[in-house]
From TrEMBL:
PANTHER family: OROTIDINE 5'-PHOSPHATE DECARBOXYLASE. It comes from the Bacteria. Its EC number is 4.1.1.23. Keywords: Decarboxylase, Lyase, Pyrimidine biosynthesis. Catalyzes the decarboxylation of orotidine 5'-monophosphate (OMP) to uridine 5'-monophosphate (UMP). The keyword Transport does not apply. This is Orotidine 5'-phosphate decarboxylase. The keyword Signal does not apply. Homodimer.
Length: 237
């Protein structure tokens, strides 16, 4: 089981969002010297399936970001199927509720000590107050993130996915216990694209992020290797 970032590759997770496994492997090879993990998400997993995990794991530990969200029995079954694949981290939506998260934790523990860390996704970083309001959540992202963060940790999550805007709020409320994995990262000058709640790598880590997740600012750069190296260097290790 992977814990806090300690190695020379720092706190960077590179999101390999492509449907092509050959491209993802090439990118993984380029960024691996500067990345603690690579992220295998829905796009690639839907296209290439479980074999993608072993292929990427040859380059770096893998964060399997499938954001599971279903009834407890179904999520527990999915975690049971995924846990032996060897991912270091696995996501599920906090919005699935405490029973779903507890069932996922039990299923992960049944896989033994090498189980993946379970991260609960609070409010997607693409959502602003207006988007949240449209799904019936009033009060804005910060309030909802904190509500879900407390619930998810009490239900058995090992950590949380949140935007950089909520990191210090969660640290103030829950301390150092939750591993915080933070997408919505944009180096100065990068396009936000569909991300709504963003900050720079430096600001996210200064606020208390354990890991930052960066996709397009690296994968669409002229040199992904150089872009990843620059981010890791900017964080001081
Ligand atoms: O709230 C969330 C949860 C997950 N993600 C994932 O992170 C990366 C971000 O990619 P960028 O290209 O840097 O925007 C992507 O794979 C998402 O699925 C997130 O952005 N927000």
């Amino acid at each position: 089981m992977l814990h806090r970032p300690t190695g020379p590759k720092g706190r960077l997770i590179v999101a390999l969002d492509t449907p092509r496994l050959d491209q993802a492997e090439a990118l993984a090879g380029q960024v691996a010297p500067s990345a603690g993990l690579v992220k295998l998400g829905l796009e690639l997993f839907c296209a290439a399936g479980p074999p993608a995990l072993a292929r990427l794991a040859a380059h770096a530990p893998v964060f399997l970001d499938l954001k599971l969200h279903d009834i407890p029995n179904t999520v527990a079954g999915a975690v049971g199927s995924l846990a032996p694949l060897g991912a270091s981290m696995l996501t599920l939506h906090a919005g699935g509720g405490p029973a779903m998260i507890t069932a996922a934790r039990k299923a992960a523990e049944a896989a033994g000590p090498a189980r993946p860390i379970l991260l609960a996704v609070t409010v997607l970083t693409s959502m602003d107050a207006e988007q949240l309001g449209a799904v019936g959540v009033a009060g804005g992202p910060a309030q909802q993130v904190l509500r879900l963060a407390r619930m998810a940790m009490a239900a058995g999550a090992d950590g949380l996915v949140c935007s950089p805007r909520e990191v210090s709020l969660i640290r103030d409320a829950l301390g150092e216990a939750p591993m915080l994995v933070v997408p919505g990262i944009r180096p100065v000058g990068s396009a936000a694209g569909d991300q709504a709640r963003i900050a720079t790598p430096e600001d996210a880590v200064a606020a208390g992020a354990d890991w930052i997740v960066v996709g397009r600012p690296i994968t669409e750069a002229a040199s992904p290797a150089a872009a990843a190296a620059a981010i890791t260097a900017s964080l001081g290790r």
